[in-house]
Design goal:
Number of strands: 15
Number of helices: 13
Shape: globular
Order of helices and strands: EEEHHHHEEHEHEHEHEHEHHEHEEEHE
Helix content: 25-40%
Number of domains: 2
Distance between the termini: 22 Å
Radius of gyration: 20 Å
CATH topology of the largest domain: TIM Barrel
CATH superfamily of the largest domain: Enolase-like C-terminal domain
Strand content: 15-25%
Bound molecules: 2-succinylbenzoate, magnesium ion
Strand order of the largest sheet: 5-6-7-8-9-10-11
Largest sheet: 7 strands, parallel
């Protein structure tokens, strides 16, 4: 089956988080992102671009996504007969960078093909799991007491894996306190590139806490110093920011810069690239888990489908919908199962769809693109 797009619509939205989310790089109270709707043959496919309002996690922003989608990516697809979602990715082969913009529009094409062919995204990706193990990412809190209360609350909700955000001055102490109160909790930390090799003693102190992994301790592009740090630690290093593409994954593994990779479909440029990285990691014996960007239910549906692939063997940062927003722009909501899992959607395509009234309420900007 093939398709030809009639038009593409972009929606710039803003949603308030239920609670502020603080990392080593920013404290955010609201989500802003671009939602992509692709129209073909009476069907609508949705995709979410995960870039944030400012270039703190990544150089990409809502504004760079908007520019790339409007001026480069949408025009590259409109009027083209697409044989498969991979063919859409192929149309972007000349584009350097801008992974999150590419992934957002590619997701809308996957959704369209899934609906057309009556297969779920998980099926299209070759994933077989019906539920995926998930955890929760806990931001930096003003005090240790507030952090412990937050972790306690998530554990009570049924989350069996917790990730703590760390930064210099907020690392060994909060992680030790959580480990002490929850001796059996699956626990990991994420530094979002806040450290350098000079901080090796900090990481050696974390080495005694039986952490699943230490995520992206060093520079956001680095794969050289991470290899040096890994050689001095027992705890596996997991890379997030540094893995922008299939090639970056291969280079990092060739250098032993990490033992685990956090897969974010937006960061690597779409499901087509994610599938190649999944295969590479499977061949090299490198476990994956699915990262999150505080997505709406559109992005979350894609993450859950991806995490259903065989080599996603660690719990993902894919929490239940209720952890993020009071009213998501899309439905259905994802609910945490008793075994700390989310259920993989089985409906055709993403299995999630935007609610027009919610979208309108959250929308700051709208654009229709036709050939
Ligand atoms: O580093 O994993 C990260 C959110 C925004 C930017 C970077 C990160 C995160 C998260 C969120 O940790 C995890 C989630 O979506 O629940
Ligand atoms: Mg991270």
């Amino acid at each position: 089956m093939s398709l030809k797009l009639d038009r593409i619509e972009l929606h710039h939205i803003r949603l308030q988080y239920l609670a502020p989310f603080e990392t080593s790089f920013a404290r955010e109270t609201h989500k802003e992102c671009v939602m992509v709707a692709a129209y073909a043959g009476g069907l609508t496919g949705w995709g979410e671009c995960v870039a944030e309002s400012g270039p703190w996690y990544s150089y990409e922003t809502v504004e760079t996504n908007w520019h790339m989608l409007r001026d480069i990516l949408a025009p590259a697809l409109l009027g083209v007969e697409l044989e498969s979602p991979a063919a859409a990715a192929q149309q972007f082969a000349r584009v350097r960078g801008h992974s999150m913009a590419r992934a957002g529009i590619e997701a809308a094409i996957w959704d369209l093909f899934g609906q057309m062919e009556s297969s779920s995204l998980a099926q299209m990706l070759g994933a077989t799991r019906t539920r995926v193990s998930v955890g929760v990412s806990v931001g930096i809190e003003p005090t240790l007491k507030e952090q412990l209360a937050r972790v306690e609350n998530f554990v009570a909700q049924g989350y069996k894996r917790v990730k703590l955000k760390i930064k210099p001055g907020w690392d060994v102490e909060p992680a030790t306190a959580v480990r002490k109160q929850f001796p059996d909790l699956l626990l990991q930390v994420d530094a979002n590139s806040a450290y350098t090799l000079a901080d090796v003693a900090r990481f050696q102190a974390l080495d005694d806490l039986q952490l699943l992994l230490i995520e992206q301790p060093l520079h956001h592009e680095d794969i050289v110093d991470h290899a040096r740090l890994q050689a001095q630690l027992r705890t596996p290093i997991c890379l997030d920011e540094s893995i922008h593409s299939y090639e970056h994954a291969r280079w990092a593994l060739d250098l032993n810069a990490c033992k685990i990779i956090n897969m974010k479909v937006g960061r690597v440029g779409g499901f087509t690239a994610a599938l190649r990285i999944h295969q590479l990691c499977q061949e090299r014996g490198i476990p994956l888990w699915c990262g999150g960007m505080l997505e709406t239910n559109i992005g979350r549906a894609g993450n859950v489908a991806l995490a259903a692939l065989a080599n996603f063997t660690l719990p993902g940062d894919i929490s239940a919908s209720a952890r993020y927003y009071r009213e998501d722009v899309a439905a259905p909501d994802f609910v945490l199962n008793g075994d700390s899992t989310l259920t993989v959607p089985t409906a055709p395509g993403l299995g999630a769809t935007v609610l027009p009234a919610r979208l309108a309420a959250a929308r700051l900007r709208h654009l229709e693109i036709k050939r």
